[in-house]
Amino acid sequence: MTILIDMDDVLVNTTEAWVAHLNALFGTHVEYETLGSFDVSLPFAPHTREEVYATQSHEEFWRSSEPLPGAVEAVTRLKEKGHRLFVVSNSQYVALQVKMEELLFRYFPCFTWKDVILTACKQMVRGDVLIDDAPHNLIGGEYEKLLFTAPHNRKLDAAAMGFTRVNNWAETLVWLEEHGKD
Ligand SMILES: [Mg+2]
After folding, report:
1. The predicted structure's pLDDT at residue 182
2. CATH number of 2-12+66-179
3. For residues 110 and 157, is the Cβ–Cβ distance under 8 A?
């Protein structure tokens, strides 16, 4: 199978680390688990969206991010089984080198730049399945759609949207084994 994997909040704990970074920066006490929207800036008002998103260029925030539980083991296992894996990310170009070299390639040494596809339109990418926490990346894609649970998507009715919800990497591996093509 060709398995497309989102990076932020699927392979690594980007938003959790970002919220901690913003709290330290602004002196706020926003809890990651209470985020109800894909727009992370909302609970940080009166700080503006521009102000919040500008911090994505802070290299120390990317260095503080780490893999989500089971992600490294899952990627290793899927590679060993012979699947083709691509990291499909809508990463901003700011701090991209640090994000990739000191986060993705550091913790997932089986990936190189040749395995990374950067795009804001994931529907243009071909693969058997996309694992992503953002519903807008799953809608309309010609791949099986696995919605990886995150606080912002917890209330979505995944089945009604044509997605399969997976709560963690253990559930993702089970689904891939049960539904995957060899
Ligand atoms: Mg994501």
Report:
1. 53
2. 3.40.50.1000
3. no
On the CB side of 48, CA atoms within 13 Å amount to 3
The span from the CA of 143 to the CA of 48, in Å, is 35
Single pTM value for the model: 0.96
Distance 134 CA to ligand 1 centre (A): 6
CA distance 4 to 14: 18
pLDDT in tens, 55-76: 999 999 999 999 999 999 999 9
Kindly list the domain boundaries of the chain, sorted by start residue. 2-12+66-179, 14-64
Q: How far apart are CA 140 and CA 169, in angstroms?
A: 24
C-alpha of residue 9 to centroid of ligand 1, in Å: 5
| C-alpha span between 182 and 179 (Å, rounded) | 10
pLDDT tens digits for 132-156? 999 999 999 999 999 999 999 999 9
Nearest residue to 48 (alpha-carbon basis) of 59, 40, 56: 40
CA dist., res. 166 & res. 127, Å (int): 18
Distance between Cα 181 and ligand 1 center (Å): 25
- Per the listing, tokens 């993702």 go with 172
Classify residue 140 by its DSSP letter.
T
Peptide bond into 46 cis (omega under 30): yes
